[in-house]
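Here is one chain, start to finish.
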Amino acid sequence: MNLRRIDLNLLVYFDVLMQMRHVSRAAAYLGVGQPAMSAALGRLRELFEDPLLVRQGHEMVPTQRALNLEAEVKKVLRGIEDVIEPPGDFDPAASTRAFRLRMSDLLTFLALQDFARMLEESAPGITLTVDHFAPDETADALTGDKIDVAISTGLDVTKSIRKADLYEDTVVCIAHRDFDVSGALKSAEAFARASQVRVSQSPLDDRFADHNLQAMGLDRNVRITVPHWLSLPEILCATPLIATVPATFARRIADRHPIGIHPIDIFDTAFSWSIYWHHRYDGDPAHRWLRDSLGDSCMRQLRQAGGAG
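Its structure:
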């Protein structure tokens, strides 16, 4: 294949199409017209001899060939970025690099505001996309170059994934302020019987509630399972249910809702929020800037949310 005859901009179009899964949204993201994006998709299909993206309802679903290409294309684009921004010369104020990170809605709510403000003020050309992979998918997303960093807790990762702890938190029980939860917290058996709300993608619910109780031969009485953290306050304010959440989150929502916070003494509740990345980016100055800036910002906001300054 003669690379001189290939428009390498097509790889940028491919990368954005895979992110957006929608021609119009991809066109808007790149600042081009929809006809230009459709034409680029046609050229990509011809280049790779595959449909790549197939319409399904209002979205475009990637073929297996497209999924196989996704990580490789990202590596190629990163290599080009490294040539343009050689080691030691990364300037966030002048950079147009696009970063992707994994954060839950809880962490986005608690800890992303300062970093977002800093980007607007000091790095206006840098763009950020936040994804929320399930915990068991996050290590693969880092390895496959789908994300640059992840901020989470207790992820099961391989030796190729680096980790740095940001903040020591604890798990607490929350419920409506007028709901007496003292009986539910007297013993593991009482806690297991109490009607609860569970966050389906939370490693904390699994690690601190389900796993501990199952080790004692107990099953938790989960009445409602939700996919996101931010729905919990409204549900708890309308029901006599309890939930298991980080203390940082509990303190933040208790300032805005009639929520009571209760320590859990049944099992150990300490854990760390951590930032994760693949070792291939240890020496990348742009990536190091992202890790340092985002990590410091999140650490500061988590401390504020936890009442530690």
